[in-house]
Amino acid sequence: MVPVKDRKSAALYERASKVMVGGVSSPVRAFKSVGGTPKFIRRGKGSSMWDADGNRYVDYVCSWGALIHGHANPAVSASARAAMSSGTSFGAPTETEVRLAERVRRSMPSIEKVRFVNSGTEATMSALRVARGHTGRSILVKFEGCYHGHADPFLTKAGSGMATLDIPVSAGVTAGSVGDTVTLPFNDIEAVESEFRKEGDKIAAAIVEPVGGNMGVVLPADGFLPALRKACTDSGALLLFDEVITGFRVGPGGAQGLLGVEPDLTTLGKVIGGGFPVGAYGGRGEVMAEVAPEGPVYQAGTLSGSPVAMAAGLRALELLTKGGYRRLEEASAALQEGIESGAEKAGVALTTNRMGSMLGEFFCEGPVVDFTTASKTDTGAYGRYFWEMLGSGVYLPPSAFETAFVSLAHSDADVERTVSAAGKAFRAVKK
Ligand code: HOZ
């Protein structure tokens, strides 16, 4: 492995650890599960980012999927700068947020009305409140290994950092807060039908990532989402798709557009903010009419609908074309194929799952269809692979339970370089 220059990042991490919890602003960034210490990033451009020591990486984290156009896209940045020069926040509505809402509605017909917030966490916790307000029921059904942000009711058997750091239930979450949460295995139709048979009239909502993106990538099995849709409809519960990752990432209509299953409520984030902090929740008009000021479900936010974030997000969505999604598919398929063939040549057991530009790599025999099978991944091998790749200038998610993202800025040369680095890394992992 080429040793990565680390003097400045290491010094920054030491300074950060004295004044910031774990030296980071969000746990998965701390590199805990891959070992070593995090790289401090100085700048990004296109598919590349550079750390404090000047190391250049082809970036497959892409701000955890937010940067579908890559880093510092000139048009997105120009829109943000133009908005900023007219004032950064008003605490009052602007035309830009109306335009972004109109665009979201055009792309995702299940969203008749939307509310903008500042993060995916805010979106999911608010959407759950709406579902409970609308149905007058309490129970939330969720799925193992899916991650819906860090609001209390979602913090059991969740993916992302919870899986990475092996925290089954977050400390600080009271039994009361999760007392109405029922967690079922992802892709398990029987478990869904049995739970709805048992408690269907008490279930307010079922929330699911239609494509799991926080236990690595796990695709919905044939019939799973339609069965969940039917169970919700039959029992009067709401179906809530968490499309914070998949929204505008896997296609203009999100996973719901691609898979043909329509939820009652949807949460969005990442891509719709163009790299700025944004979340959104929305759904049928009559359900969203529960939200204040139209209805009694309270939710608010000083910086919600930030004009800068709205402008960046709107531009990011305007730049997404059919050709762009085709390009993402081609580049991601080439990446998946190249990686799989490198692993096979090196004799490494690797299973990959992919939906469009979302790629999951599991160091185990497949198939990986739920959190139990995703957990079979050899996290130690992933850690070694991660560092080999980093040494070759490829920045992967620093956790075996996250997704690698391809952006429109990734070139064929980036993909080729990554595939060749992966071939070398698999040989080193095998030794
Ligand atoms: N929510 C991200 C995982 N899907 C993690 C973000 C972070 O830790 O920076």
In short:
The protein folds into two domains: 7-60 and 321-430, Aspartate Aminotransferase, domain 1; 74-318, Aspartate Aminotransferase, domain 2, CATH 3.40.640.10. 39% of the residues lie in helices and 14% in strands. The chain has 15 helices and 14 strands.
Describe the fold and architecture.
The chain starts with 6 loop residues before the first helix and ends with a helix. A hairpin with a 2-residue loop joins strand 1 (about 40-45) and strand 2. It has 15 helices and 14 strands. It has two domains: about 5-60 and about 320-430, Aspartate Aminotransferase, domain 1, CATH 3.90.1150.10; about 75-320, Type I PLP-dependent aspartate aminotransferase-like (Major domain) (Aspartate Aminotransferase, domain 2, 3-Layer(aba) Sandwich). About 55% of the residues are buried. By secondary structure, it is α/β, with parallel strands linked by helices. A seven-stranded mixed β-sheet has the order 4-10-9-8-7-5-6, with helices on both faces. It has helices at about 5-20, 75-85, 95-105, 120-135, 160-165, 175-180, 190-200, 225-235, 255-260, 285-290, 305-320, 320-345, 370-375, 380-390, 410-430, and strands spanning about 40-45, 50, 55-60, 115, 140-145, 180-185, 205-210, 240, 265-270, 280-285, 350-355, 360, 395, 405. Helix 2 runs antiparallel to helix 11 (about 305-320) and helix 3 (about 95-105) runs parallel beside helix 11. (4S)-4,5-diaminopentanoic acid binds near residues 26, 28, 29, 64 and 160. The site of (4S)-4,5-diaminopentanoic acid has 7 residues, from loops.
